[in-house]
Fold this sequence. Notes:
Chain A is mainly alpha-helical. Chain A has 32 helices and 9 strands. Chain A: This is Cullin family profile domain-containing protein.
Amino acid sequence: MLIVPAGRMANGYKKGLNGADVDFEKTWGILEKAFQEIHTKNASALSFEELYRNAYKIVLKKKGEELYNKVAQFEENWLGNNVRTGIVKHLTAPLMLDGTGRTLNTQAERREAGEKFLKSLKGAWEDHQVCMGMLTDVLMYMDRVYCTDHRQPSIFAKSMGLFRDQILRTPVRPDSPTLLEILTRIILDQIQMDRDGEAIDQFLIKSNVYMLEGLYDSDQEVEDEKLYLRSFERVFLQSSAAFYREEGERLLKESDAGTYCRHAKRRIDEENDRCRSTLSEATTPKIQRVVEDELIRHKMKGLIEMETGVSFMVENDKLHELSLVFDLEARVNPQKPELTKAMQKLIVEMGTNINRNAVAASQATAQPAAAEDAADDAPGKSKAGSAKAINQQTVAALKWVEDILGLKDRFDNICKASFAADQTVSTAINRSMADIINAFSRGSEYISLFIDDNMKKGIKNKSEAEIDATLEKAITILRYLSDKDIFETYYKKHLCKRLLLNKSHSIAVEKQMITRMKIELGNSFTLKLEAMFKDMTLSEDLANGYRNHVRKLGDADPKRVDLGINVLTAMTWPLEAFKSASEQEGQESRAQVIYPPSIDRVRLGFERYYSEKHSGRKLTWQTNMGDADIKGTFPKSKGDKPRTHDMNCSTYAMLILLLFNDLPDGQSISLEEIQVRTNIPMNDLKRNLQSLSVAQKTRLLVKEPMSREINAGDRFSFNENFKSEFTRFKIGVVSAGNKVEGDKERKETEKKNNDSRGFAIEAAVVRIMKQRKDLAHAQLLTETITQLSAQFKPDVNMIKKRIESLIEREYLERIEEAPVPSYRYLA
Amino acid sequence: MASETDYVTLISKDGFSYVVQRSSARISPVLKRMLDPTGAFLEAKDNTCILQDMPGIVLEKVCEYFYYNEKNKDARDVPEMDIPTELCLELLMASDYLDI
């Protein structure tokens, strides 16, 4: 009961569905007619269901292949006959002529014709897509059953391929290019117009590009075989490359670097926009690369070396343009080699200039200085001249430091403002700075002088922040310096003078500086400098202690001379800084100066006091470094009251003046006499007498004969008519400040420095060998250099010599059988 | 052009018409394309589809399935739909036709 109707129904259904006798030709006739309607945009009268049912039936009858082919055939005919002719119609004369290269038509005409063509092509493409969409819907069952089973591309893909073959790949006329080629050319032409600033219909091109992107090179529809990538993009990139190469060269010739940069940047942005608005996003990175290659990478060198290139920009502080150059180069290469090179070259150039100027400035004065050195003991007028020359050299040194700092500031500024504080560039700049600073042999001395000068006068009337900045500056340069040990020597020398002669403006600042150096250069560097400060404080305590001690003795002698003293550790203080070159050779400097009894008593008293406190220490009196406050009473002249003046003078000057205390009025003493009675070294004596009898403001003595120089046989007497508007004044001694060294002093310093380096090297070598026992020569060298590089850059020859000497002294021995030269440590 | 309505009408070959929710009917790609308001065919215009090959009894079951499917879209352990044995073959063919 249940089965019977079901079977009946099933049969009937089958009959109804399959129709048993589906007439293919008839059914296809219906479909074909409908397709025609669809293509002519008349689909609204058609029943989807009917078409679908017909197609369904055909496929069900296993006629799918026939249907597929029919449809393809139909499409092919349609495209070939109707659509193509419609497009070819728009291939007007301007475009064709353009194709053969004989561009006779104006740009406007070409553009118009091109736009027409593009429009028609776009229209055809869009129609085709819509129609094929509808066809696909109707033929859904065919796609689903037949195409999947027989591995045919879907009818949609097939028809797209047909469009490609029929429309784009078919030559318009037998011997002419295909539409695709024409299309490509037209788009390129339009883009060219766009680049030249003409307005084009970007949207139109974009639609065509969409079409190309939607089509594939083959029916397989492989993703990277899009027609766009295969045919258009390549040509586009090529032509762009050619265009930009040409433009870049022209611009390099015609305009200045700043304009070029701006232009290049604009071009890149433009191409970006173009890709977005006109072409495909996928092209963006590629075209960027092309533009970067052509406008930047290949031109960077030329750009930087242009007359108006980087050096011009730096010279004229064109920060904005520099930043443009930086941006451009950063685009193509994160290392920015060209720009870095250019900056380094510039720094080295400018730095060398500064160095040369400094050398020139010191050279100009070195001549008289040298002459003076040679004729040292011939008391000549060159003394003052030489002092002046040395002053000039000091000025040169200060100028050098300022220049270097200026240079550094400038490039730092550029780096910050234009290069976004880029790591690579700033390291390069730093390296170059270090190079030029180290290329200047007197760098260490000059830097120390710079600090010295600032400590003495520079920081007067300056706020804390300013002082800080100055110190920071000095440290900055110091950081670049590789021969730090030389600097240490100089700094010690200069610091020593500052401390002993009370030239330093502020001890706090001095200490601050030392702290900074400690941070920057390490503990060992400042050890001796700190020791100097410690000596100073200890001495102060000592002097106070002594004063109390004397007071306790109850020896209330108002005439007693007060003593302030600095006890210095011989090792840490570079006392030879105070000796002039000639003194170091003469034996006389060692001889004791003869003190008048009042002074001598104090001296002995202190010696006693000191040896009570610290036994076993020997005090050596450095009288040439001391100074004294004395009170002088001058007889009244012409009705004035007797005048008293407080004078500050060197110990030697005091000794000399004390001689005149005992002298009856009007008497005079000869130079030789003074020398014998004081035992002051002749050189110092002369210098002091000069300031006492020649200098205008402190002429306490009258010299006979009256001349600028102190000669043997000159006689001195007390100047009773001395006048000064000050109650307190200082009697200066010629050349006591920190100056650039003379040649002789320099040699001395160098020699000493070499010696100390030698010791440092030996120490390092021994340290390394002690640890390693056996080591190859090359390795030993590198390790030594690394160990010492914090202090200075050791010379390889020197290391070799030192190793040699260590072998001689049997610290090391050569390993005979080693394949490479090696050493062994001998305990 | 027809506007997008919430309901569409399906008519069987023997004249039964079923008004179903468009969203439910869309599970069939064929119906979906057929009734797509952006399409240019007759059915889209009227929001009505005449299924020339389908008897009312089958279409009824099909519509039942539409709602059954819609209701149980996200659920698990769905109770099986009641399908009369005699309709099996027809339903099979209809589902092939409609691609559901």
